[in-house]
Please model this.
Amino acid sequence: MSKYQNWYDQITQRGQNCETKTGHEKHHIVPKSLGGSNQKSNLTYLTPREHFICHWLLVKIYAEGEPHWKMLNALRIMRAENKNQTRYKTKITSRVYEKLKVEYASILSDKLKGENNPMYGKKWTEEQKMAHSKKIKGRVQPLEEKMKQKRAITGRIRPEFSQEWRENLSLAAAGENNGMWGKKHSEETKQKQREKATGRKQSEETVRKKAEAIRGIKREKLLCPHCGQHVAVNVFPRWHGDNCKQQA
Model:
C-alpha cells in the first residue's frame, strides 16, 4: 500500500465516524467515475479542506491510464475559481499548478487526437453552414461581452513564438493548404473591399500604437533600378520595382 493510499484511508475512515455532518461535504470513497456506488459504506463526510486533499491524493493513487485522467479532471474542476465556486482556498504553489495544467493538457490532447476527436472525418454540410451563417449574421456583440474579452487579455504578455512554431504555421498555409489556393477575388469582391476601405481613417490611438511598435526598428531597404530610390522592403513591391512609375 502506498503512502498516498494510507493517508487517503485514514481521512475517509475518520469522516465515516464523525458525529456531526454540519459544514462537511459528502465524498465517494471509491469515485463514481471509477465504479463507486451510492451505498452508505462508500460514503464519507469531509471538511472542504479534507475533501480537496482527498481528491489530490486520488491523483497520486491512480497514477496511470484512464483512471488518472478522471482523477486529474476531478481535481481541476474542484480547483476552478469562478463566481459560483469559492469554497476551496487551499494554496497551490505555482510549480504544482503548472505541473497539473501541463499534465492535464497533454492527456486531453492525446484523448482528442485522430479518431478520438468527435469531428474526425466529418464536415459541415451546406445546410449546417447556412444555419450557422443566419444565426450570427447581423449580430451585434453586447458591450458587457466585449468588455469581458478585453479584461481577459489586458496586461497579458504573449510569449514569443518559437522558430519551429513559425515554420509549422507557414507550412500549414502553404500551397494547396492555403484557403485562397487557385482562387481569385471577383471584380464584385474587389469593389466591395474598395468601398469599405475608401475614406476609412485610423484613430489617433491606433496610429500611436503602430508608431510605438516600430520606433527604433531599422527596416531593410532595396534600391529601385528605375527611380534610384532606397525603399523599405515592406512597400517596395507596391510602388517600385516592376510597379515603379518611372520605369522605361
In short: The first strand starts at residue 25 and ends at 28. DSSP finds ten helices and four strands in the chain. The beta strands are 25-28, 43-46, 221-223, 230-232. The radius of gyration is 29 Å.
